[in-house]
## 1
Amino acid sequence: MGVKERRERHREGLRKVILDAARDLFVNEGYQNVSMRRIAQKIEYSPTTIYLHFKDKGDLLYQLCEETFRGLYAALRNFSVQESDLDPLDLLRQGLRCYVEFGLQNPNQYRVTFMMGYSIDDPEGRSLDPANPGMRAFAILREGVEACIRQGKFRQADVEATSQALWAAIHGITSLLIANSRFPWVDKEKLVDLVIDTMLAGLRA
């Protein structure tokens, strides 16, 4: 391995260390309470080092969210109606369950991305760009809803409103299971299936 490759590997390794440290601090201490200096202290580097990788704290948070969105999109791609000939309703159900499982398997990533209001530090609206992996993940849900309506699986309804309602429901159960782990939940799989099946049953034609 040459010098250039070693430097690039070191750079990427340090970037990951910064992101991991920032994520932990945001979750444990709150985004508003964490400074770039605090992150630098945690990784035992100078704040200047962090600024070599990220413009500011908002950019750091945005990159954390992008990392999560990329993982979510990669997981949901398997349930895209554009990529499969399977029944769109079955694909939609499996995709909704995959979303919840992704959140439960990556609780800190989910907290930072979906439960901390990161959009306050996205003044350019980058997160809403259709090419953004988060929007591409939502597009998979929307396409599934549209296919279900088109094929008569769902009654005629507003595609965007229906898609947002489904997302709101699965985000709600995912967030509750992450944030309230001490609550005496019934079997989680049973609960998640009930939430999803109840929502889909209400949309059936």
## 2
Amino acid sequence: MRDSERDILATAVQPRNALKAHAEALFVLTVTEGPERGQSFRLDASAPTRTLVGTSPACEIRLTDNEVSRRHCALERVGGALKVIDLTSTNGTFVDRVKIVEAELQGGEFLRVGSTMFQVETESLGESTVSVPPGSAFGRVVGASREMRRLYPLTTRLAQTTVPVVIEGETGTGKEALAESIHETGPRAAGPFVVFDCTAVPPSLVEAELFGHEQGAFAGALHERKGVFEQAHGGTLLIDEVGDLDPALQPRLLRAIERSEIRRVGGDKWIRVDVRVLAATRRDLDREVQAGRFRDDLFHRLAVARIELPALRNRIGDVSVLATHFWQEMGGDPRAIPRELMQKWEDYGWPGNVRELRNTIARRLALGELADLEPSAPIERGAQADAIDRFVDPALPFPQARDRILDEFEQRYVARLLAMHDGDVARAAAASGIGRRYFQKLKARSKK
């Protein structure tokens, strides 16, 4: 890592552009028992991701206590509380002598890991300056909530480096969109952005997809083929769902990242590659490492920096921001969103996160009020029946009828957006606000 990149990472957790905010609490963890007795660790609202406690070099609070696991527990800021999550540690995590799996601390508690005891205290920051800058977007990622604004200084700084980054979050939170935004706002923007999804390739072909293969390397290998590392040369490679990568292939991936060289399946020479690696996962990699399903050294090499995207249900105020953005992006007038509909969306839990919200809005724009009807609800036809009536076949079950209309919407949307941008997929995807890979999938489906 270059010195300039170390400087950027060192300042990433303490953004300088700050604004006034509501009263906040600074959590201070002071070691009262154990090898690190007397040391204090401060956790304020500027920390955008979880803080790991353990003996591993990957932990922000690193202890030398032999009774502490490599990744013992994690600390997260949740509103005005500090959440403690035990990471299936060997000796357990205790709050005031009670063994916990998860607990929320308000200050005044004692936290014990191994033989190390922390006293948890808070310091009120009142109406003082808190490091949460203004802003409502970073590239393709949209959100004005406090939870998202805390991330933007870190993502902006990381975009200017070439260090590996692990992006964590539930399905549909926008991990690929964030990865593409980091690529597009960084020094490698002119290079390729390649996505490899570990869950989309049969296990027997993963190695060949990653590193390529020579002609005749296996049955069906009629020609030599470059893998995604070679395809991403000079640009960025996103390894999606890296937590699902076969443990047998993890050492080869580690070597490729550390040495910047790969060897094709069936080949005998090493090929140099210049690739920035980003990794995304819906899994809790700390638990995966603890369980032995993911290599500690690979995690440590990938997680030079970590970003955890919050679930939409935890992004206060962002449902309306995203709904308005998507509605307008898809050609609708955001002023036409019924107030009761917006309230319904804001009250919903969104288990599918931003992706589910986007699909819901696409369905609403395609079907109108029909999108809100239950399968058994009657459909009234009147003088104001619109153009989608010709696609509604009452002989079909509701899910099939709905999918038929959504398919038509996707085809027309993709065709018109490509026409607006002279067939340029990259520009059309950027205008659509979705990841280039997903846009290409829509384009491919529209040709069938």
